[in-house]
Amino acid sequence: MTKWRGTPAGLLAMVFLLAPGSFGQVVENPAKPLAKDAGRVLALTEVWRITDDSGAFFFKFPRDLRVADDGSVFLHDVDQFLKFSAEGRFLKNLFRKGQGPGEMPDSAFQYRIHGRDLFILGQNSERFWRADFEGRFLEQYDITKISDPAFMGVVPEGFLFLTFVWPPRSEFTGKSVPVPQRVVLVARDGSGARDLLKFNRQFFLAPRAATYDLLLIEPSPDGKAIYLYNGWDYLIEVLDAGTGAVLKKFNRRYPKSRIDWTDEQEKRRQTSGTPRYEFAPDVNSLFPTKEGLWVETSTEDKGRGRLYDVFDRDGRFVDSFYLGPGKTLMTVQEGVVFCQEKNENDTIIIVKYRIDR
Asked: What average pLDDT does this structure show over 327-343?
């Protein structure tokens, strides 16, 4: 059994409050995919790499790498919203600190790309606006009726936000409690909002900390479906982005990854009073593609890197491979992947690779 290092994400599985008979078909997949060469290390050829050696920007915690239709690359880092050309050339930092239109008070923001627009949520200001690819402010939407929103994506009917209310401090007594949450769909013109999904997410509320279910929500590239992972076991749901109805579910037989607690993690856990989980959630991240879905699993091999599973649009388990040691997948496009790595002097680099067939 592969060991997994990291802080466990949560406790138990989410329970969806959907009407009886609304569940879609479950595709039960075996442990091995259809591809005969499954389990290989993916063959990659470097296209370009981005380093911060120039001093024009810096990499500290790069995340949320997204690629526009014209090939432009956008990246979120501390006090930075970086734009690169399709060739990996640095163009500008779109981050503007402040309280005015199109400005952000801090680095807590989320964004998505749709067409030629950037949609940006300033999480601490709870302002949501549209900008062009040069970062110029275009319009702002009123989402003040949504409590503590998290921006999940853009779909044909509008914008998806996750919202919930933290339990009062009186409930932080070392118990597991269900916390109601909602996925809210806001109309494209910002004129109205409606609940797309309602569910309970299980939280463990210790006196000094909280752990909770791992929740992953990613729209498909065309925005017509939503991929959702709900907790610990290998089960992925596909929902209609307009109605929230479950279209299908799929899974595969998967060996659990044991958590190898470090001494420091164990010390922090004991201090916080949170549980000592034996196994990690089966899934780490979801990467929708035009052909289906890439799933980052919790399995990691020292010599081969992280294990990724590939499912087609029907939920069939078609392939599985390792990405290679030292590579963290940031996003996948048709025929290419973008990875975060470290170079010889232990500084962060971003590398675009072509997938060799």
From this structure: 96
| Residue 24: predicted pLDDT | 59
Rounded to an integer, the average pLDDT of 22-34 is: 84
Report yes or no: 218 and 288 within 8 Å, Cβ to Cβ.
yes
The model's pLDDT over 261-296, given as tens digits with 9 standing for 90+, comes to 999 999 999 999 999 999 999 999 999 999 999 999
Place of tokens 């990875």: 339
Residue 265 main-chain phi, psi, to 5 deg: -65, -40
The pLDDT, as a whole number, for residue 104 is 86
Residues 66-77 as b/e (b if ≥16 CB within 10 A, e otherwise) read bbbeeebbbbbb
**Residue 166 carries which DSSP code?**
P
Structure tokens at 61: 């915690």
| Mean pLDDT value of segment 301-316 | 97
Sheet with 109-114, strands from edge to edge, namely: 109-114, 117-122, 127-131, 137-141
Burial environment of residue 31 by CB neighbours within 10 A (0 to 12, 13 to 18, 19 or more): exposed
Question: Do residues 324 and 305 lie in contact, with contact meaning Cβ atoms separated by under 8 Å?
Answer: yes
Q: 119: left (phi > 0), else alpha (psi -120 to 50), else beta? A: beta
CB-based burial, 193-229: b 16+ in 10 Å, e otherwise: beebbebbbbbbbbeeebbbbbbbbbbbeebebbbbb
Tell me which of 155 and 9 has the higher pLDDT.
155
260, 239 contact by CB (below 8 A) = no
What six digits make up the tokens of 55? 């001093």
CA-to-CA distance for 276 and 280, rounded, in angstroms?
A: 11
Q: How far apart are CA 77 and CA 67, in angstroms?
A: 16
The C-alpha atoms of residue 65 and residue 343 are separated, in whole angstroms, by 19
User: How many of the other CB atoms lie within 10 Å of CB of 51?
Assistant: 14
Helix residue spans in the chain (DSSP H): 263-272
Backbone CA torsion sign across 146, 233, 5, 35: negative
Could you tell me the domains of the chain? 3-28+93-330 (2.40.128.630)
Global confidence as pTM: 0.90
